[in-house]
Amino acid sequence: MTPQTQKELETAWGLRVFDRFTLVLHIFRCNARTREARMQLALAEIPLLRSSVSGDSEQQDQQGWGSRYIMGSGESFSELRARALRDRELRLRRVLERLRDKRRLMRKERVRREFPVVSVVGYTNCGKTTLIRALTGEATLQPRDQPFATLDVTVHEGRLPSRLRVLYVDTIGFLSQLPHSLIHAFSATLEDVAYSDVLVHVTDVSHPDAELQKATVLSTLRGLGLRPALLESAVEVHSKVDLVPGHTTPCSGALAVSAVSGRGLDELKAALEASVLRATGRQLLTIRVRLGGPQLG
C-alpha cells in the first residue's frame, strides 16, 4: 500500500490504516526489550520511511514545493529528509555490526568451552519459551501468550539425562510472508541458529493452521542458508498437545509434548541427548570400577 493510498483511506474512513508490514512492525516495537532489538527494528523501518518520503516528495512536486531549498543549503526539503535517512541507516548498521562482533565472541567462548548448543525454533507463539522453561527448570523465563513475545535470542543452560550440560537458544518466532527487510534486520540475531549443534522445531498442533505454520518455518530456515545436515536432523516437536483432546503420537517421527502437563518431556530429553551425542561425536561410556581399587585412590 502506497503512502498516498493510506492517506486517502484514512481520510475516507476517519481511522488509522495499517498495512501488514506496518502492523507487524508495531507489534515488534511493543515487544522490543533490548537496545539491539530496538535498533534492528529501526533499521527494518528505514525502507518504509524512505517510501513515505518518496511519496511526499511526489505530492510536493505536484504542488510546486519540491524545488524549494532549505536555508541556502542547496537541498530541497525532500532531499534533506532522504539524506537524514541514509545517515541514520549507516549509524544503525555500524552499531549493529559491533553488536554482531560481540555475539561472535560469545559463540567462540561457547565453542572453546565445548558446550553443545540446541536452538529451539518455530512459528510465533508456538510455545518455544514454555518448552525451554520445562527443559531447564529456569523460573525466570516468563512466557507470554501473544505473538512475537520473544524478539531477542536468549541462551539458557540445561542438562540432559546423562547430566551433560547443554545450552538452549530461544529464538524469534517466524511468521508467514515476513517482510524481507525484517528478516534481514534480524539476521545477526538469527546467526546463532546457524551455529547450533541441534535444532528443535516446535509446532503448535492446537492451532488450526499448524501445517501452514510448519511449512513457513521450514521455508524460512532454508532461506537462512543453514547446513542441510542440521535441517535434516532436526528434532520435531508437536507442542500444546494438552489442548487437543484425544491427540495421539504422530507417525511422522515427531514427539508429542505438553510443557504444561509434562507429557512427552522425558522422551524429548532422550531424543535430544541422542541427537547431541551424534552431532558432537560424543559417547556415553559406563566404566566399572572395583570398590577400593587404585582408580578411586
Total E-strand runs: 6
> What fold name goes in the CATH topology slot of the largest domain?
Rossmann fold
- Any low-confidence stretches, pLDDT <50, length ≥5? none
Rough shape?
A: globular
CATH class of the largest domain, named Alpha Beta
> Can you give the helix content as a percent range?
40-55%
Element string (H = helix, E = strand):
HHHHEHEEHHEHHEEH
Strand line-up of the largest beta sheet: 2-3-1-4-5-6
What fraction strand? 5-15%
Number of domains: 2
Quick structural summary:
This protein is an alpha/beta fold and about 300 residues long. It is about 50% helix and about 10% strand.
Topology:
Elements: H1 3-13, H2 20-31, H3 35-63, H4 77-112, E1 117-122, H5 128-136, E2 154-159, E3 165-170, H6 180-185, H7 187-194, E4 198-204, H8 210-223, H9 228-232, E5 235-239, E6 255-256, H10 265-280
Parallel strand pairs: 1-3, 1-4, 4-5, 5-6
Antiparallel strand pairs: 2-3
Question: Which properties best describe this structure?
Answer:
alpha/beta; Rossmann fold; six-stranded mixed β-sheet; 11% strand; GTPase_HflX_N_sf; GTP-bd; P-loop_NTPase; GTP binding
Structure description:
By secondary structure, this protein is of the alpha/beta class. The protein has 2 domains: 3-95, no CATH class; 114-280, 3-Layer(aba) Sandwich (Rossmann fold). The protein has helices at 3-13, 20-31, 35-63, 77-112, 128-136, 180-185, 187-194, 210-223, 228-232, 265-280, and strands at 117-122, 154-159, 165-170, 198-204, 235-239, 255-256. A 6-stranded mixed β-sheet has the order 2-3-1-4-5-6, sandwiched between helices. Helix 3 (35-63) runs antiparallel to helix 4. The protein is globular, with a radius of gyration of 24 Å.
